[in-house]
Amino acid sequence: MTTAEPVLVVVVVRTGGLAGLRREWRVEVDEQDAPAWWPLVEACPWDVDLDADGVPDRFVYDVRANEREARLPESRLEGPWSELAEAVRRRAEDGA
Amino acid sequence: MTHAIVPPYLLARLAADEPGRFPVAAEAARLALLDRPARPRSTVLPPRRSSPGAGLRRTVSDAGHGTDLPGRRVRAEGEPPTGDVAADEAYDGLGATYRLLADAFGRDSLDDAGLPLAASVHYGRDYDNAYWDGERMVFGDGDGEVFGRFTASVSVIGHELAHGLVQHTAGLVYEGEPGALNESVADVVGVLVEQHAAGQRADEASWLVGAGLFTDAVQGVALRSMAAPGTAYGDDVLGRDPQPAHMRDYVRTRDDHGGVHLNSGIPNKAFHLAATALGGYAWQTAGPLWYAALLDPALPSTATFARLAGATVRAARAVGGREQEAVEAAWQGLGVVPEEES
After folding, report:
1. Best residue in A21, A23, A77, A86 for a mutation probing chain B (most B CBs within 10 Å)
2. What pLDDT, in 10s, does the model give residues B133-181?
3. What is the mean pLDDT of residues B17-31?
4. Amino acid A54: pLDDT
5. 8 Å CB contact between A6 and A28
6. How far is CA B173 from CA A21, A41, B170, B182, in A?
7. Is there a domain that residue B124 lies in?
8. Pairing state of beta strands B117-123 and B137-140?
């Protein structure tokens, strides 16, 4: 991750699934990397709290970017949400 | 929502009967039931099969690591193995689950009307999950780091199909307490499928759900332990198995549809306690009691633990004093007071 003061913190929390495991991925973005991340964040329609889809064993996602947040069932994690969540996970796991 | 109509006491009694006597006794009982003034019925009794397994119709598809379902059909009923491990495990697991439902409960597939069983394997990329989408089971291959393929445990295949069983019976709402009961029933059926396929008595079984799914890198034996909820894993990355084993530890959270995979530990333990107290094969003892509860018209789709407990006690009472005592003791030991009236 970065050593400078972060200007953007994005957290993706995944719960549910057959295993019921809670997984959390977090990235702290400094000023230098921010231009690459803000478009991903801005592309998402924030401040939604969608009902869980009630499909047994599917995941539920909570996504936060600084003060913005959203809750999405797996079936709604598509388009920009999917891109953002995948980017956070990839960065958190691989530092890519 | 569809509620089946066979009275719990009868199913329990029949299912607890000796193997081989069941089909005849069940038929006679069903005929007798037709003359019995009972609750309003929304369905008619399905015809009995001429032989066990006659209604087994499986289809396995390969999603090819995409997310469009069902994917390419790779094996249908009666066709030879494909050579693809996941596809063949899914096919075998569908058969094992069908046979458990038929042998233990006299049920012809998920809807008791021979519903074809469908599964899709190789769903998504590095997909760490398996789920029931209302029509089929969907299995990921795992990420290879935490999880391997999700077809590796027959208890998981049974678990997913059991969500279909719940959908066709009690219709338990997938949120909070009824959601945790939905999960627990899925775990119960999952371990019963495994025990039935392996010919294991209650005191021989592992009572683990999803044994062998974790890779060797994970400190854990399974996803859940019905015998000892909260002990299935303890890993640096994944943390400790958070399942409670007593009502005083019920987890209140917005995550995971209200902690449905966490709080299921409580009713899971109740089933384990009842099954081990009764001894023998769980699919012949406690299993039919829980199944009878699922079919109980008085069990609401929003059932609490206490209401399911009440339905299992009612089913046990109809079978005998020993059964009633075992089931009551199981629930009370977990801080759940069975409630039979709304």
Report:
1. A21
2. 999 999 999 999 999 999 999 999 999 999 999 999 999 999 999 999 9
3. 40
4. 81
5. yes
6. 21, 34, 9, 7
7. yes
8. parallel
In the residue annotation, B160 being an active-site residue is answered as: yes
| C-alpha–C-alpha distance, residues B326 and B315, integer Å | 12
Taking chain A, what is the end-to-end CA distance rounded to the nearest angstrom? 9
B134 contacts in A (CB within 8 Å)? Answer: 55
Query: Residue B32 sits in a domain of what CATH number?
Result: 1.10.390.10
- What's the token pair of residue A58? 């599917």
Average pLDDT over residues B295-319: 97
Alpha helices, H only, chain B: 8-15, 22-34, 85-105, 154-167, 176-198, 255-263, 265-278, 286-295, 305-319, 321-332
- Flag whether residue B260 sits within 8 Å of chain A, measured between CB atoms: yes
Which amino acid makes up residue A2? T
Q: Closest Cα to residue B49, out of B118, B101, B95?
A: B101
User: Which region holds residue B207: left if phi is over 0, alpha if psi is between -120 and 50, else beta?
Assistant: left
Residue B188 inside a domain? The answer is yes
Å between B173 CA and nearest CA of chain A:
8
How many domains is chain B built from? 1
Contact B147 A19 (CB under 8 A): yes
Domain ranges of chain A: 8-94
Residue B130 touches partner A, C-beta closer than 8 Å: yes
Written as six digits, the tokens of A25 are: 């991925």
Q: Say if CB B297 and CB B342 are below 8 A apart.
A: no
The pLDDT score that the predictor gives to residue A3 is: 60
Specify if B166 maps to a domain.
Answer: yes
Identify whether B338 is preceded by a cis peptide bond (ω within 30 of 0).
no
- What single-letter amino acid sits at A22? R
By C-alpha distance, which of B218, B212, B255, B245 is closest to B233? B218
